[in-house]
Write a structure and sequence with these properties.
single chain, alpha+beta, 8-stranded antiparallel sheet, 7-stranded mixed sheet, 16 helices, 36 strands
């Protein structure tokens, strides 16, 4: 593939709800542009962009993939993105790499949850956006109904630039509203094959398009009001400018799997209407001294390339997907990683088409490509010139919503698990791994249950690590509610030197979050000074396993008040054991109680679903703290909820809101567990302990 200047490149992310035909549309665009010689099928697992075995098996897109093609002396870099909410992190990276977002909307289902989410990401990143109503040949396809839903949901900037000829099984092509020419599967449609009602509807839609173009530009508004019309050149120029500025979101239509109807006109529109990297406007970056620098897609300027995605492969190593924002990145060169402050060696650059890699001597400003085996570079990092270093803004990835415990199936798997998870977190910035040492578990957090199931599949398939996923254990605590004074006495005589340690302690509760306090009140040498640290050590070790259910003990004060010793038999070990014995006895007498972690939760939901959310949180023993309208048709509900009730909340919220709700949570405090729940927790803890002991 030849080198194209920035003004002849179009970078487009194809996104939208799952099942809207995005991958099939990308396949049809590649076929129309002769980038592939036959169209693959999602059902057969043979498409260009769904090349991962997991994608072929599940018949869904999991990972964003690049698919370039050439059309009328332009290069079009398509990025096929996932449509399922568990993989929205891929969309965040993909949208950063492009100028335009093409949102696929099903002609039957219409506007769905991920339509809204994809549009929101495009708006946040200030990308030009367009909509394509797909599957126009399906039964019950309704272009007008879906167009009206888009306009109701996303505003008057949404306007049709194509109109369908027929619909459902009679879908025969599209009318270009700029030129008022109809296009079928094989090219222009003769006028006698275009029904009169389709042309009448197209003329009315053209009037609305011209009005939208006129309204998007003050100079054109004046011309339109004065003359009542715009010239063809003014319409084309105004539409392109409106799309670039984001004041117009054009709507196209197609049936990709039905003879590629609408696909060639869509490619014409991508090249003719969507902005090039040269038209994107200045990109803000930070200079080496913290000063602001603006980059303008100049191939001869300072180098600024951003890694927007990383793929981990156990055989090839790391494959870094790059967007060159400024300058020219060359194969076999050295660059500066501004984020890490290190030199990085660039080997062979590639232009990717799905899994196919075509070597490229260089990538100019505006282009997309990849490089393998970067040593220190991660997703979001900027590669630049050391002496003129610039840093591009980091990519904002969504935060994980659900955590699961991951356990290796065997000792061999245990040895490999850590490094395999580290490789996967390089690849997936919505995957977080942490060690819950108190619960002796490794936790992986992600966007949903499907996401974590696929992580487990990848561990097995890519790295040969078999794992089991389970609900994480809740880190309960134990404390006391009363005063106790007890003796801990350890005396052992086995012939020869014995063991003797004797201590009296007092135990008192402290306020929640008050922590642990040890007070030494020994007077007159009842216990020699050298043995007092041993008593405290015994107490601290005993605090690791409470008497209620074996959880850590917190929020209490232990005072060492008295004791006795033996000149020969007393030792540090004896006093440590005595301290531990005293602590356990005091716990029993000081009215022990189980504590549970409580989290602060913020749930963002559409206004009309707020009642359902509040009812559900109440059923989870939640306490509603307040409601805050966000001014965009959504409300944030704030509550405090026991952590034990939130372990599957990501799935609950998705089913309650149809995927429209999102939430964040953060640890708040510990509080007493209601007795009926404490009984269940205690019984379960004993069962687990017995199972572990039986296993050993």
């Amino acid at each position: 593939m030849k080198r194209y200047p920035p003004d002849r490149i179009r970078n487009v992310a194809v996104v939208g709800h799952g099942g809207t035909g995005k991958t099939t549309l990308v396949e049809a665009l590649l076929f129309a542009g002769k980038a592939i010689d036959r169209m693959g099928r999602v059902e057969d697992g043979t498409t260009t962009t769904d090349f991962d075995p997991e994608e072929a098996r599940r018949r869904i897109t999991i990972s964003a993939a690049i698919a370039p093609l050439e059309w009328k002396d332009h290069k079009v870099n398509l990025v096929d993105g996932p449509g399922y909410p568990d993989f929205m992190g891929e969309i965040a990276g993909a949208v950063r790499a492009v100028e335009s977002v093409l949102v696929a909307v099903d002609a039957v289902a219409g506007v769905e949850v991920q339509t809204e989410k994809a549009d929101a990401i495009a708006a946040r990143e200030r990308r030009s956006r367009a909509f394509v109503i797909t599957r126009m040949d399906r039964e019950n396809a309704a272009f007008t109904r879906v167009l009206e839903a888009l306009q109701a949901g996303f505003g008057k900037s949404v306007v049709a630039v194509q109109w369908p000829v027929g619909g459902e099984s009679a879908f025969a092509g599209v009318v270009d509203l700029l030129e008022m020419r109809a296009h079928g599967a094989a090219g222009p449609l003769p006028a006698d094959q275009v029904p009169a009602e389709a042309m009448d509807a197209a003329r009315a839609a053209r009037e609305r398009l011209i009005e939208a173009i006129a309204e998007s530009d003050d100079a054109l508004t004046e011309v339109y009001l004065e003359k009542g019309e715009l010239t063809a050149e003014q319409i084309a120029r105004g539409l392109h400018a409106g799309v670039r500025a984001g004041t117009i979101a054009p709507v196209f239509c197609a049936a990709a799997s039905h003879n590629g109807l609408g696909v060639a006109p869509l490619l014409d529109a991508i090249v003719g209407l969507l902005p090039s990297p040269a038209e994107r406007g200045p990109v803000a970056a930070r200079g080496a001294k913290g000063d602001e620098v603006t980059l303008t897609a100049d191939p001869d300027g300072v180098l600024a390339a951003q890694v927007w995605k990383t793929m981990a492969d156990p055989y090839v190593g790391k494959l870094s997907y790059l967007r060159v924002v400024n300058g020219t990145l060359k194969s076999d060169s050295q660059v500066w990683n501004a984020a890490r402050g290190r030199l990085e060696r660039i080997g062979q650059l590639f232009v990717l088409r799905g899994k196919h890699q075509e070597p490229a001597p260089e990538l100019p400003a505006g282009d997309l490509g990849a490089v393998a085996k970067l040593a220190d570079t991660a997703t979001g990092d900027t590669l630049t010139d050391k002496d003129k270093a610039v840093t591009l803004p980091p990519i904002e990835f969504p935060k994980p919503a659900i955590a699961m415990a991951v356990e290796p199936k065997s000792k061999t798997d245990e040895d490999k698990l850590g490094s395999a998870l580290a490789r996967l977190t390089e690849e997936d910035h919505t995957l977080v791994v942490q060690r819950a040492s108190e619960m002796h578990q490794t936790l992986i957090s992600g966007m949903g249950e499907s996401h974590l199931e696929i992580v487990a599949d990848r561990l097995r398939r890519k790295f040969g690590v078999d794992v089991v996923l389970s609900v994480p254990r809740v880190p309960y605590r134990e404390t006391v509610r009363a005063h106790a004074r007890v003796q801990g006495k350890y005396k052992k005589q086995t012939g020869g030197r014995g063991q003797y340690g004797d201590c009296w302690i007092e135990m008192d509760p402290k306020p929640r979050g008050g922590g642990y306090e040890f007070v030494d009140k020994i007077f007159g040498g009842a216990i020699p000074r050298q043995f007092i640290p041993a008593v405290e050590k015994g107490i601290k070790e005993a605090m690791g396993e409470g008497v209620v259910a074996g959880y850590n003990v917190v929020d209490l004060k232990v005072t060492l008040v008295d004791g006795s010793y033996h000149d020969v038999d007393s030792s540090e070990m004896a006093f440590k054991i005595a301290g531990s014995m005293a602590f356990k006895k005091a716990m029993q007498e000081a009215r022990p109680v189980l504590l549970e972690p409580v989290v602060d939760v913020a749930v963002h939901v559409p206004d009309d679903q707020m009642g359902d959310i509040i009812g559900d949180l109440n059923s989870k023993r939640g306490r509603i703290q307040g409601m805050e309208p966000n001014g965009d048709g959504t409300t944030t509900v704030r509550a405090q909820v026991p952590m034990a009730e939130m372990l599957r909340y990501a799935s609950d919220l998705r089913s309650l809101t149809g995927g429209r709700g999102t939430f964040e949570q953060a640890f708040s405090h510990y509080e007493e567990v209601p007795s009926h729940i404490a009984d269940k927790v205690t019984t379960e803890a004993r069962k687990q302990k017995e199972a572990v002991e039986a296993h050993h």
